[in-house]
Description:
six-stranded mixed sheet
Amino acid sequence: MATLAATKNTLADIVDRTAPDGSIEKDIASRVSRTNEILQLLPWVEGNKPDGKQIVRATKLPSVGYTKFNKGVIKSKAGFEQKTDGTGLIKAHSDLDAELARLNNYEASFRRTEDMQFAEAMNQQFASDLIYGTTVGTPEKFIGLSPRYATPSTVRNNEGYYMIDGDGSGSDNTSIWVASLGEDGVYGIYGKGGSAGLTSEDKGKVWVLDSDSNEYEVFRTEWRWEVGLQIKRPGAAVRICNIDKSNLVGETSAADLSVLLQRAMSLKEKGLGQDVILCNKTTQAWLGIQASKETTLGLHMIEDTFGKPIPSFWGVPILQHDAITNAEATVAGTFQSNI
């Protein structure tokens, strides 16, 4: 019974969603929704492969120099590499027993409330994998931001160079991301011939098997989202890692968020798209608290394209991304110190 209640809608689920007048409640307050504002802004690009997108990156400039009398021209060439990013398919079925749905004509209203929760679950899955997705142990997924910017480096032109240490320790760290969204920077991808965005399809009534291999009818909605991530140039994103949450909240040896952000914005390559800052609600709150104590930190309110006020740092919008946790392990290594 416990397994059934966890995966199948039962009469109890209908009772939970029934309004006093006997109809299915339309205004449902969610205890599980999350805020991941980048999902509204991330651009999407069709891949050139059925399961992803291949790009070519320049890795080395040719050598040039001044000529001398009786000397030839330097021989050299540029260096290039191919890089392919794959996509994954998030898929789910929302099933409702057909006989259960017919009770008091609950079919349409019940399915609508169920579908809203499936859409939120799909969004949260992608939002989490956008940061932490890895193909190590889960080859069906795509590679998110953190696995790409995981190992600090002092060598330019690789992802590790674009990492800044927040000087935290332990296992309660978080990160701030500064990124350029656009086709020259950070963007979502889907396979060649595929479609962008979360889609749902009403499959109508289909026959399924119960635990005893007997058939029964369900109303089914299929949810589908082909997702992937590509970063055209490593400098299109900067990760500020090792921000110790307990130090931040306790205001003891707390990271100076404005200094870290200024360094990250200077380190990130310019002109690659729309610049945004990603952090979770804890970091966003303490950035505001630090700014309230020092009015020169450059924190202001601006309006997004929908007229909604959002905080910004020197004009760059700060987007709340709840999928960024406060439980990141300390990132060790030698960070570049040019900025």
